[in-house]
Design brief:
The complex is a heterodimer. Helices cover 63% and strands 1% of the residues of chain A. Chain A contains 12 helices and 2 strands, in the order H-H-H-H-E-E-H-H-H-H-H-H-H-H. Chain B is built from 13 helices and no strands. Classes of the chains: A mainly alpha, B mainly alpha. Chains A and B meet through helix 1, helix 2, helix 3, helix 4 and helix 7 of A and helix 1, helix 3, helix 4, helix 5 and helix 7 of B.
Chain lengths: 331, 331
């Protein structure tokens, strides 16, 4: 039902008898129902490809039509028509700041947790609890994480991380958003790093202990360098999730149009303590349902965002392929 | 860190110390999750206490109730309004989540069977990146495409004028509604299910499948009767995690679900699928500005805690299912 309107009409599946070769032998002898099932498989597979192609092509066409290079370095302004409202340089900078801060917090924490989980993991009960915690963090809706963030960062003790006026802590800043976004990236980094550490055979560790290395030295000198491709993959996946998140940014960054530095603070801190925007909130606010309603700008920003996501995907794929080519541990 | 590390067996980086430091970090993360669970509930408690079980019930216009709650918090006095009956929001969440998970379950099963068993190599090489790509497209982009393409299409072509007129006094059918939301949410959660399902299918012991093939059962039947059944824990895990993801989806649904506190009524007949609504998570994102009003803040936290606990139950279920998969699945 719903699939029929999900994208352009699905191309007709090729007749199942002669289409695939190799994997499917002799579907000609199957009963009608079985062959019908295979046709559904092909139809759905091609439909998914069609949807992906449609998204990319459509956004590329709209992006080329509406994106002017000047938008990338013009800050947003208020105006009556789309010609007057400037570009989205502040949102672009915001995306970069948020991505950097989120990863800077999530990467060391994620790797440390995984090292503990895989290499130490005692007591076992705690290890089970930690596994469940990571799983739970991955499943918690990001709006809830964001609301929890408002509680933490509105406390007076953490007032130095955001704007304060008359004793009331605003609680919305790049610090707040970055910290909570690191929670979003954490499960991805843990899962990927864990895959890397688990792939290293036991005898590598034992060889290291046998030459007198401590466990800590083994982790630092041998295990983490060997797991680097997976750690980087996790980092890229986490970065993609951070860049794509909207709910946390809307709630914890204030989703203003421009960067709003706090007056009187030294240089990097004034911006980091202030509110701002990212590409995702820019698209959200610029869509017809948002406050600004400037679809052309929304398309342009969405195009830039999609390019970033595609680049990250390609990077992850390349690293994955290279690490596979380099070969894993031979036993 | 590089310099500190020089004496690799020195007391500063001794194994006990490293283990204790990592352990402390791990305990901190577990504590953070527990704090989130407790804090969000505590902040939402006043709303639950004032309404009792009727919080979950129907009655009155939920949007008007929230507006009254918000205004009572801004009035400066402390006689707050608390009455809130969230049923339309809960019903909308249930409808959107379960219809899309049901559709996605069907689609993902076929696609993952196709990917693992039947697709020729060239098709796998295309379909696998497509699935990764669809998983990494940010939700605002899905929302934007929904608003600018799907909503006008449904509003202008699928909903007839008599249908619009038949409910004109109650709600307006514009294309923002269940069908739009479910369609896009299905595309968003399918990749997650596909990746978990195909992991499960790949880890089925080859001997089981070969045994069935040797008995003369055709490949299609073998896949469904042996491989899919053996991968049942993965299917449960994927479905449950997809439910958690769908529950937490906020921004995309805020953009296209219709944003009306209305409970779509199946008794209205077929136009029920066009009726607008607004799920729980979207309600939070749309009312960020109300966080400054004390009773509205508590109401939003009550919504958040409902989401948090539902998602936590789902993640826990998924964790258990995946653990059993590890036990029976890969050799």
């Amino acid at each position: 039902m719903a699939t029929e309107v999900a994208g352009p009409p699905a191309p007709q599946a090729p007749p199942s008898g002669k289409g695939p070769t190799g994997a499917v032998e002799g579907s000609a002898t199957w009963s009608l129902l079985d062959r019908l099932g295979l046709v559904i498989c092909w139809a759905l597979g091609l439909l998914f490809c069609a949807i992906a192609v449609a998204i990319v092509v459509y956004l590329f066409l709209q992006g080329i039509k509406f994106l002017k290079p000047s938008m990338l370095w013009t800050p947003a302004a208020s105006g009556f028509s789309e010609n007057e409202t400037g570009g989205f340089s502040d949102a672009l900078i915001g995306t970069m700041i948020v991505g950097t801060m989120g990863i800077a917090m999530a990467l060391p924490v994620g790797v440390a947790i995984t090292v503990w989980l895989v290499e130490y993991g005692r007591p076992t009960a705690l290890a089970r609890v930690v596994e469940m915690t990571i799983e739970a963090i991955a499943g918690i809706p990001s709006v809830v994480i964001a609301l929890f963030g408002t509680v933490i960062f509105s406390s007076t003790a953490l007032g130095f991380l955001s704007r304060t006026s008359g004793g009331v802590v605003f609680g919305r800043s790049f610090f707040a958003a970055g910290a909570m976004l690191s929670l979003v990236a954490l499960p991805l980094i843990v899962a990927s790093t864990r895959e890397g550490l688990n792939a290293i055979p036991r005898h590598v560790r034992e060889a290291s202990y046998a030459v007198g290395k401590t466990k800590a030295a083994t982790v630092r000198r041998i295990l983490l360098p060997s797991a680097r491709p997976q750690i980087v993959t996790g980092l890229i996946l986490g970065l993609g999730r951070i860049i794509g998140d909207t709910a946390i940014i809307v709630i914890l960054l204030g989703a203003t149009q421009n960067l709003a530095p706090v007056e009187g603070a030294p240089f990097p801190l004034d911006y980091l303590r202030g509110a701002g925007a990212t590409l995702t909130t820019f698209v959200y606010e610029s869509s017809p349902t948002g406050n600004l309603d400037q679809p052309q700008k929304a398309y342009a920003a969405a195009f830039v965002l999609l390019l970033m996501v595609l680049a990250l995907n390609a990077a992850a794929e390349a690293i994955h392929r290279r690490s596979r080519k380099a070969g894993t541990w031979s036993h | 860190m590089e310099e500190d590390f020089q004496p690799e067996y020195g007391p500063k980086w001794s194994d006990q110390r490293v283990e204790r430091m990592l352990g402390a970090l791990v305990v901190f993360i577990v504590g953070l999750l527990l704090a989130m669970i407790v804090v969000v509930l505590l902040h939402g408690l006043p709303s639950f206490l004032h309404n009792g079980l009727s919080w979950f019930g129907a009655g009155g216009e939920v949007d008007a109730q929230f507006q009254a709650i918000y205004l009572s918090g801004q009035s400066g006095t402390s006689d707050y309004v608390w009455t809130f009956h969230a049923w339309p929001l809960i019903w909308s969440t249930i409808l959107i989540t379960f219809i899309s998970v049901f559709l996605a379950l069907f689609i993902s099963l076929f696609i993952s069977v196709f990917l693992v068993e039947f697709a020729p190599a060239w098709m796998t090489r295309i379909l696998q990146p497509v699935v990764y790509f669809l998983a990494s497209v940010p939700s605002v982009i899905y929302g934007l495409l929904g608003v600018l393409i799907l909503v006008p299409f449904i509003g202008n072509h699928l909903i007839t004028e008599p249908e619009k007129a038949s409910v004109a006094g109650v709600i307006s059918l514009t294309g923002y509604g269940l069908l739009t939301a479910v369609t896009i949410l299905t595309i968003m959660i399918s990749p997650l299910m596909i990746s978990i399902f195909s992991d499960g299918l790949r880890s089925v012991k080859p001997g089981w499948v070969e045994g069935s093939l040797a008995l003369g059962v055709n490949r299609w039947r073998t896949t469904w009767k042996i491989a899919v059944r053996a991968a049942r824990p993965a299917i449960v895990a994927g479905t449950v995690l997809a439910v958690a993801r769908a529950l937490g989806e906020s921004v995309m649904l805020a953009m296209i679900s219709g944003s009306t506190g209305f409970a779509p009524n199946p008794l209205d007949g077929l136009i029920f699928v066009f009726e607008p609504s607004r799920p729980l998570a979207a309600t939070i994102v749309e009312n960020v500005d109300a966080l400054s009003s004390h009773p509205a803040n508590a109401t939003l936290f009550a919504i958040a805690s409902l989401l948090l606990y539902s998602a936590a139950v789902c993640s826990f279920g998924g964790y258990l299912a995946r653990r059993s998969m590890r036990k029976y699945g890969a050799a």
